[in-house]
Amino acid sequence: MAHDDDGNNDSGNTGAVLKGVLLTLGGIAALWMFVGVGLFLLKNVLFFGLLGGAGYLGYRMIAGGGKQRAVGGRRSQKALGAGRSRNSGDDFDRKMRELDAIEKRLDAEIGKR
């Protein structure tokens, strides 16, 4: 049996070692890309979070600087009722008059500043 053998029986492990090195390098590259995408997303979330927080603080400054609630009214009072009653038209008209009065007060307060 003619067999091409140079007497080195350990040469079969070279492929496995090379495969392991390439898999390790590929894993490191994938991890590096994952970290890069994670940092990109984290920066965007922080940016928009800070932007939203600054907008909210500006809103609170305009709305009264924390001395009053942002939206006036009693806690039990709701802008729109949960269901329709027999006097839903009257209720709607009353709420529209309340909203108009609130709008006029806000316009007067903004006009003072």
Structural notes for this entry:
By secondary structure, this protein is mostly helical. It has 2 helices and no strands. It has helices at residues 13-63, 88-112. The radius of gyration is 35 Å and the shape is elongated. The protein starts with 12 loop residues before the first helix and ends with a helix.
Secondary structure: elements and pairs:
Layout (H helix, E strand, L loop, with lengths): L12 H51 L24 H25 L1
Biggest sheet descriptor = none
Arithmetic mean pLDDT:
80
Helix content: 55-70%
Decide which structural class fits the backbone. mainly alpha
Gap between N and C termini, in Å? Answer: 104 Å
Low-confidence stretches: none
Shape: elongated
Strand residue percentage: under 5%
The radius of gyration computed from the alpha-carbon positions, rounded to a whole number of angstroms, is 35 Å
* N to C succession of SSEs: HH
How many strand segments?
0
Alpha plus pi helix count: 2
List keywords for this structure.
single chain, 113 residues, mainly alpha, elongated
How would you summarize what this structure contains?
By secondary structure, this protein is mainly alpha-helical.
